[in-house]
Design a protein that fits this description.
The complex is a heterodimer of chains A (about 375) and B (about 220). With about 375 residues, chain A is of the alpha+beta class. Chain A has helices at about 1-10, 15-50, 65-75, 145-155, 200-205, 220-230, 240-290, 295-335, 345-370, 375-380; strands at about 55-60, 80-90, 100-110, 115, 120, 125, 135, 140-145, 160-165, 165-175, 185, 190-200, 210-215, 235. Chain A is built from ten helices and 14 strands. In chain A, strand 5 (about 120) and strand 6 (about 125) form a beta hairpin. Chain A is elongated. The chains are: A alpha+beta (about 375), B alpha/beta (about 220). The interface of A and B includes residues 11, 283, 291, 380 and 381 of A. The structure holds adenosine-5'-diphosphate (ADP) and magnesium ion (MG). Adenosine-5'-diphosphate sits at the interface of chains B and A.
Chain lengths: ~375, ~220
């Protein structure tokens, strides 16, 4: 029966070729759309795709020092967990300079004395100007951002910065983090936000206001639970991971809709193709039935033919989609000089596989069942 | 040669029409392995319809059809009886054009699930008898009418039928080929197969033991 199906596919290759083009176009479109969409999301978030860490923040009031200590103790016992505190400090020596009519607000990041990698956001590490990614800062020392360094240059200060009554030695300059150093406009007064790093010991003597502890850890749930137990404000503002998940879910929805639409169009087309093909083959069916083929045998033959053609089309369409995506990748790598990863999620693969097999099985069944509706007598009666 | 199975067909008062048009109006007929019947009649008188009912391709409206004592119900598909007992031959040959002669001949055997070895031994005796061994690998389109009909006869014989039903088998042939085909059918009849054939041709009808005329939906002896 397989041999018969294959030979009839070959004999009717013109019809099947026409039909295949429709299937190929549709499933290539679906494939390209899915892989492209997945790849775009993947490449947008690839820096955090395999990131096991989360960024959690705990907010303290002036009176929360005991709680801060408890939380720190807890965090320091956790594996692979880092934290720092951040607070706006008034009384920077430049504050009164009204630099170019701008008020300078200094946000200090208080880091523990040991060296660790400081993350602006998930997967995005702070870097010194020379590209060094890990750094330490000692007592009465400060590492400042590029904007602050520029301001100091312009007012003629160089090695020392007075902050809240302390004279701190500038030991390094780091790259700006995109937004924090921007100049803000508010009622005609410009506010300039700058960043700096100081150590715990330096920070200890300053008056404390509303600090935020930023915790970088894979144990997000434990930290959230503990922070809330202590009655502290908890948030997870930098959570790109949640954003990514949302985006992936949104993408699944639109994929389903588009796939269903394309498949409906394909389905309507295919029924037409099949009817045409059957009209041409009624004679063959009639003769075979007269010669003792059962309805079941005819159904089987047409089912096999259709499944073979359909499934090879779908495999081919998938291969073509991958090839097209390969072209996109080459464009990114060679023309844009960027890394770009071709990615397909399990969801997309599932949608693709389900829609493809549904289509193949449904249309093939339809085709083969229609094939038995042929009136045998009409085609074999002699005058 | 394999033994030919016994067959006994009885049509009793069969009626058949299409829409409001009545085609067969009470046809009765007995056929077995020893029958050689020719049916003639005007075009459109219902000869092919009768053949197709006889050959279990078409149902009937009223009457009774007994096939080896089994009651045949109209509307049911008796493909197994068709496969095991009946070989069809047509005026227009009804070969499948995209297949070779060999593939056409073995088509019924394929559907019957016959083993390849069995097919091969059986087919060689048939094609030798019909003198078409040299045509087996050819396509059907290049053949002459006589060759096509011999290929079609080979196909009708491949499952060793008890009855050959032939609808104007010589209608498209010249006299030489007509006689050749009739000699083949006569030979098969002598081997023990019943034959029912439709023809307009007196010379063809003369081969039959029994000549029947179909008129106004009823049969009469010529
Ligand atoms: N499948 C069919 N549907 C409707 N009418 C049919 C069909 N087959 C045959 N007929 C009609 O029945 C009559 C007998 O047809 P047929 O048996 O082919 O005649 P014959 O073979 O004697 O020429 C004709 O009038 C024909 O038009
Ligand atoms: Mg006829």
């Amino acid at each position: 029966m397989l041999k018969e199906a294959l030979s009839q596919i070959w004999n009717h290759r013109k019809t099947y070729l026409l039909l295949s083009i429709t299937v190929l176009l549709t499933f290539t479109a679906i494939g390209v759309y899915m892989i492209l969409d997945d790849s775009i999301i993947f490449n947008k978030y690839k820096h955090i795709m395999h990131e096991s860490h989360y960024i959690s923040t705990a907010g303290f009031d002036r009176s929360d020092e005991a709680k801060e200590r408890l939380l720190k103790n807890k965090i320091e016992q956790m594996s692979d967990t880092h934290y720092y505190c951040t607070e706006q400090i008034q009384g920077i020596s430049l504050y009164d300079h009204q630099f170019e009519d701008a008020r300078i607000n200094l946000e200090v990041q208080v880091i523990p004395n040991h060296i660790w990698a400081y993350y602006w956001s998930l997967g995005e590490r702070a870097e010194m100007l020379d590209g060094e990614k890990s750094f330490s800062v000692g007592e009465n020392e400060i590492i400042i951002c590029k904007t602050l360094s520029d301001i100091m240059d312009q007012v003629g200060e160089k090695d020392y910065l007075d902050v809240a009554g302390k004279r701190l030695k500038v030991t390094g300059v780091m790259k700006d983090w995109s937004d924090t150093s921007a100049v803000m406009h508010d009622d005609g007064i410009d506010y300039c936000y700058v960043n700096a790093f100081v150590s715990e010991k330096t920070f200890r003597d300053w008056e404390k206001n509303n600090r935020t502890m930023i915790i970088y850890s894979p144990h997000q749930q434990e930290i959230e639970a503990y922070t809330r137990d202590l009655g502290l404000r908890y948030s997870s503002v930098y959570d790109e991971k949640e954003e990514m998940k949302k985006e992936i879910i949104r993408a699944i929805d639109s994929k389903m809709v588009i796939t269903i639409m394309l498949i409906l169009i394909l389905g309507i087309n295919m029924v037409g193709c099949y009817m045409n093909s059957l009209a041409k083959r009624k004679y063959e069916i009639a003769v075979k039935r007269a010669l003792g083929a059962s309805k079941m045998q005819i159904i089987k033959q047409f089912l096999l033919e259709s499944l073979i053609v359909f499934l090879s089309d779908i495999l081919l369409a998938f291969a073509i989609s991958m090839a097209i995506l390969g072209g996109v990748k080459i464009f990114y790598v060679w023309v844009m000089h960027d890394t770009w990863v071709i990615h397909i999620t399990a969801y997309s693969l599932l949608i693709y596989a389900i829609s493809a097999s549904f289509m193949a099985v449904y249309l093939s069944c339809l085709f083969s069942i229609l094939s038995t509706k042929v009136e045998v007598i009409q085609y074999i009666k002699a005058e | 040669m394999k033994k030919i199975k016994d067959i006994e067909i009885e049509l009793r008062n069969i009626k058949k029409g299409y829409g409001s048009q009545s085609v067969l109006n009470g046809v009765s007929l007995r056929i077995d392995n020893t029958s050689f019947i020719s049916i003639c009649g005007k075009s459109g008188s219902g000869k092919s319809t009768l053949m197709n009912i006889l050959g279990l391709i078409e149902g009937y409206d009223a009457g009774e059809y007994l096939f080896n004592q089994q009651k045949i119900e109209p509307g049911k598909d008796y493909y197994l009886l068709r496969r095991n007992y009946i070989g069809f031959i047509y005026q227009s040959y009804n070969l499948i054009p995209e297949k070779t002669c060999y593939e056409n001949i073995i088509l019924p055997a394929m559907y019957a699930g016959m083993k390849q070895a069995e097919i091969d031994t059986y087919i060689s005796s048939i094609v030798d008898r019909l003198e078409i061994s040299h045509l087996l690998e050819k396509g059907t389109f290049a053949l002459s009418g006589g060759e096509k009909q011999r290929v079609a006869i080979a196909r009708s014989l491949i499952l060793n039928p008890s009855l050959i039903v032939a609808d104007e088998p010589t209608g498209n042939l010249d006299t030489h080929n007509r006689d050749a085909v009739m000699e083949i059918l006569l030979h098969e009849h002598r081997n023990g197969r019943g034959i029912v054939l439709i023809t307009h041709d007196e010379a063809v009808a003369d081969y039959a033991d029994e000549k029947i005329y179909l008129k106004d939906g009823k049969l009469s002896i010529c």
